[in-house]
Amino acid sequence: MSCKSCASAFVGTEEQDKKLRESIASLQGDHSLVQILQAAQEIYGYLPKGAIDVIASELGISSESVYSVATFYSQFSFNPKGKYAISVCLGTACYVKGAGEIYAKLKEKLGVADGGCTPDGKFSLDACRCMGACGLAPVMSINDDVYGKVTPDQLDGILAKCE
Amino acid sequence: MKMVNLKINGMSVTVPEGTTILQAARQANIDIPTLCYLKDINEIGACRMCVVEIKGSPKLNASCVFPVAEGMEVITNSKRVFEARKINLQLLLSNHRRECLSCVRSGNCELQKLCRDYGVDDEAVFDGAKTPSKIDDSATHMVRDNSKCILCRRCTAVCDHIQDASVIGVNKRGVDTHIGCVFDEPLNTVACVSCGQCIVACPTGALYEKDQTDEVWAALADPEKRVVVQTAPSIRATLGEMFNMPIGTNVEGKMVAALRRLGFDDVFDTDLAADLTIVEEANELVERIKNGGKLPLITSCSPGWINYCEHYFPEFTENLSTCKSPQQMFGALTKSWYAEKLGIDPKNIFMVSIMPCTAKKYECKREEQSVNGIPDVDVALTTRELGRMIERAGIDFANLPDEKFDNPLGISTGAAVIFGATGGVMEAALRTAAEWITGDSAAPVEFKDVRGTDAIKEATYKVGDLTLNVAVTSGLRNAKELLESIKRGEKNYHFIEVMACPGGCVNGGGQPLQPANIRNNVDLKALRAKALYTQDADMPVRKSHENPVIKEIYDTYLGKPGSHKAHELLHTHYTKKSRFQVE
User: Fold this and answer.
1) Are B295 and B561 in contact (CB under 8 A)?
2) Averaged over B365-386, what is the pLDDT?
3) Of the options 3.40.190.10, 3.40.50.12780, 3.40.50.410, 3.10.20.740, the CATH number for the domain spanning B3-77
4) Looking at the predicted structure, is the pLDDT value of residue A61 above 80?
5) Backbone dihedral angles phi then psi of residue A145, each to the nearest 5 degrees
6) Is B357 a catalytic site residue?
7) pLDDT average, residue stretch B288-304
8) Which residue in the list B86, B324, B360, B361 is annotated as catalytic?
9) CATH: 1.10.10.10, 3.40.50.1980, 3.40.50.300, 3.30.70.20. Which one for B127-209?
10) Does B64 lie at the interface with A, CB-CB under 8 angstroms?
11) Confidence band (pLDDT; 50, 70, 90) for A8?
């Protein structure tokens, strides 16, 4: 299965597919689509087209009906996450402290768009809103590590730590 | 039924409980404007065009979803109401690409009409950032231009609730909200059935058929081409609407006259091929019943239905009649039998069909729909495109004389003309099958149980020693219900007619557009169908196999129904597809 709109090809494992189908079976019922989508994102790290099709097929609705609901919520992502998932806070405090420039620099360095992933699958980049560390603005995170008071000239050093 | 008394604009009105204010006002001859509301299809109270004042309520309320109550006092035409509607329109215009001069819907646009009605003279007053959009012209049959979309959701409602395809929906939210396909992929990569019901539901110029009139003008100007036109059964019942004639006016004679004046070399009637379809299909039915073939046999005239069956119910593709649709049979016959008769190379024949249908544009481009690499039909135009050609040519349609189709492929029967309405193909087939099975030429002509616009019609006919169970449906969600009842083993039929569009071709996606205030208040399908049944009743020959030209074609060319030659020219095959991962 591949998706033209995603940067990298989607390869789901059989185990992931099995887990998804189990989640759907256990959650199936009225008003459960959002929970199923959350489960799918938990399993794949994002919502690949293949997973959307499986959900649609199991629920007996169209893929577009599933996608329509998923795109309403900002919590769902349709692009794969890299081995290192970078988030830059663009909330008010971080933004006035220069997070916009940090975000633009990272896009340039990694060669990816908003929500994109590098072709080697190493880095993905997202903007987010407030990590609750406004005193450290501007803030970014890589997976579970948070970096505060980031300046553009620190970025190369931060990225170099990711191997 | 409990009745409710209320006042609308000071006038007393009594309506059944549960009626909406919008419907109650209609009964008092007050037309409240709407944009998102389409009766039975889209009742979501989203666009706020239909707001009214209700005494005692501080805010304005959406009349399309607000039920009446005893003693209610409603004002539909106050200054406050007018101002609210005008601001709504101005807000819609702030995100609307206003190219009204050349827009395909200019003069026929529900948004434009309301802006005129409400005196929107400052259309740019709220202009700001526009929702980014690009035109999707990937599909063979239609174009989506979201820069003119007002997000009324009429298209998505019809695609889901009526046609069960649901390939378009509302994506994202806020200023990014737009109508699109899954992952915003182009329409030609999803399982769209090409029915065009979204186009006839759209109030603006956001959706329209892919215009192919330039190709036809070019062919008409080419001295090398013999340009042959065929008109589908339902066109004569609807084309008049393009020229403001009453709904249900049969304009067959004027249509023929107009086509001749446009310069077509032969003005023929798809009805002849409908007769041919019946002869081949009735033969197929009798053969399948006699030889234990796959039953139920399901009709194959409606290309939107064929697309749906292939993608959504591939397990039924073997039940589909192998007969090509009348459009394709007509093309195949013109480029073989007729070409030979004239002694011209079929490559020099340009076959144009006038169809009620956008899926016909897709059908005639299918690879299986050609003989020796020559497509049966070159261009399929919708009724709307023909209307525009007639307008551009400056033909005064309403005052044309009534003329007759050309010979020989313009001769047809009453059985053929009813093909344009739901139940028509079934009835035509029964007329022929009943006579063939019983050998009795006095066999019945009218099978009224299969007429009308009910979702699913069933009938059982005793034909000779055979008991024939038949069913007729239109609208693909209804078709789904019917097929699922067969899968569950609850139903057992011999013969089924399915038409993709609700009510059949008279209500096809290529038919003249009627605004919501007409669609919500009259039964378009029934009015248009009536024109066809009236014509049938008045015709001297009402059984397809009695068409003298059909007899000649079999005697001199095809041999007998189901012959090798007939199969080569007039039959096709289908492909099992998936509703997912269409490439």
Assistant:
1) no
2) 94
3) 3.10.20.740
4) yes
5) -90, 130
6) no
7) 95
8) B360
9) 3.30.70.20
10) no
11) very low
CB contact under 8 A, B183 and A65: no
> Could you tell me if A38 and A69 are in contact, meaning their C-beta atoms sit under 8 angstroms apart?
no
| b/e per residue B319-349 (b: at least 16 CB within 10 A) | bbbbbbbbbbbbbbbbbbbbbeeeeeebeeb
- Between residues B433 and B151, which one has the greater pLDDT? B151
**Mean pLDDT across B335-348:** 96
User: What's the CATH code, domain B214-570?
Assistant: 3.40.50.1780
**Parallel, antiparallel or unpaired: strands A145-147 and A140-142:** antiparallel
Give residue B485's pLDDT: 97
pLDDT above 70 for A4: no
Question: Encoding tokens for residue B536?
Answer: 């049938």
Query: Which residues of chain A does B184 touch, with a Cβ-Cβ cutoff of 8 Å?
Result: 5
In B462-481, the residues whose Cβ lies within 8 Å of chain A are none
Q: What are phi and psi of B352, to 5 degrees?
A: -110, 135
Q: Count of CB atoms within 10 A of residue B259's CB?
A: 25
Q: In which band, very low, low, confident or very high, does the pLDDT at A11 lie, cut at 50, 70 and 90?
A: low
B136 at A interface, C-beta within 8 A:
no
- Whole-number average pLDDT of chain B: 96
Q: Is B174 on the interface with A (CB under 8 A)?
A: no
The answer to whether the CB atoms of A71 and B580 lie below 8 A apart is no
CA distance A74 to chain B (A): 9
> Which ipTM value was assigned to this complex?
0.92
pTM above 0.90, yes or no: yes
- In chain B, the percentage of residues whose pLDDT exceeds 90 is 93
What stretch of H or E contains B14? strand B11-16
* pLDDT tens-digit readout, B451-505: 998 999 999 998 888 889 999 999 999 999 999 999 999 999 999 999 999 999 9
| Overall average pLDDT of the A37-61 stretch | 94
Phi and psi angles of residue B386, each rounded to the nearest 5 degrees, phi first: -60, -45
Which residues of chain A make contact with B168, given a CB cutoff of 8 A?
A: 64
The string of pLDDT tens digits covering residues B102-144 is 999 999 999 999 999 999 999 999 999 899 899 999 999 999 9
Q: Are B553 and B337 spatial neighbours (Cβ–Cβ below 8 Å)?
A: yes
Domains B3-77 and B214-570 share a fold: no
Domains along chain A? Answer: 14-72 (no CATH), 84-160 (3.40.30.10)
Q: Is the peptide bond before A138 cis (omega within 30 degrees of 0)?
A: yes
Write down the domain spans for chain B: 3-77, 127-209, 214-570
Chain B CB within 8 Å of residue A136 CB: no
pLDDT at A2: 37
- By the 10 Å C-beta count (0-12 exposed, 13-18 middle, 19+ buried), A21 is classed as middle
- Residue B495: closest CA among B355, B242, B285: B285
A2 interfacial to chain B (CB closer than 8 Å): no
> At B8, phi and psi to the nearest 5?
-120, 120
- Asked whether the beta carbons of B33 and B50 are under 8 A apart, the reply is yes
Q: Tell me if residue B152 is catalytic.
A: no
Q: Judge contact between B278 and B335, C-beta under 8 A.
A: no
